[in-house]
Amino acid sequence: MILNQASLLFFGSALLSLSISLFAFRQKNNRSAAILALLMLTITIWTFLYGLELTMTQLWQMKLILGPQYISIALTPVLWFIFTIHYSGIEGRINQKYYLWLLIIPALTVIFAVSNDYHHLFYQSVTLGLAENGLPFQKLKPAPLWWLHTAYSYLLISAGVIIMVWMLFRVSQIHRKQVLLFLAAASLPFITSIAYIFDLLKPYGFLDMTPLAFILTVAIFIYGILKAELFSITPLALDVLFKHIPDAIFVLNNDSRIISTNPAAYKLLTITEKNQNEEVTIQHRFNAENNHKNELRFQDRIYDMSRTPLKTPQGRELGTLLILRDITERKQKYEELQSAMEQIKTLQGIVPICASCKNIRDDDGHWQKVETYMSLFTDAKFTHGICPDCMEKLYPELAGDLKLEIPDKEKKDAE
Q: pTM (2 decimals)?
């Protein structure tokens, strides 16, 4: 084994991709991050084994690691495709049992690559070559099954890229950065691999730069982790929340111009997606003097308004998140409650009442009958009758009979 500059570069790339894999594994509640962790782990193995191959001088040694190397090579496109399915949020539309079918050709690839000496269906020939710089390498001449493996791999990678491009047009502008980062990270090795196959990029006449291109992929991931919260939550999930939340949400830039709104805000402002990017300021839509208040009256409705500054991790201001919550019904209920409390307070105070006729004096100085006064401040309804004392005073000839009837009735009720 001979260490050289090329092998050291691949070892370094493997170390960086392993660090990203470990970081992604720590995102336990994020299914997409877990799949990405497996993807980066297979890339780590592929890159490390290719670097190890570059240190070998014997053909049998190179063939010995061909099987493990092709396991990672064949799994990489499959995991990329599965990752894009989960990251885009469409996994619910696909029966996950079908994922096993995706492994058929990778499994055949590994089997035929390892057993190539017996059939030569994967490589027509495998010989030991010598590069221009004197570095020994495997000189491989592809056979039909190698082309099948390559076409299948490119098909899965292309399908994943198409899903990400589709997702790019589904998410809002503020979430597109994450999708673009993944597209860039996937495109670099993809383009490098195509360039290698068509002899457009093959240093020393044999070196496959595809694993090395993953250094740039890892660099993009590191940037995304530090700057764009790459593994926090998928953009589509954010957009689902953003679009279905009933509150009106506005994203404003530093000039208070609307750069993004959810459907509730569209409905509130009666603006469409066609004129969303026009130079419309929030002050033009709302009463300017109310903008500093927590409550806003607009179109016969009452809204609770909250403002949250949007800042980068370094503290640089990007704009403002403005949320309007309709509290019209709650405000009406509160006012009704306040009115009821005022009535209760009135009845609990000192009520001036006439000692003779029992009329009550209101706050304006007018005297009213008890039933009239009570009807104004309560929901009570009155019916008139006559008490026994008044009956004896007013109708003495009937009072005696009434006194006899009352005990008889009470006796029957007791029985």
A: 0.59
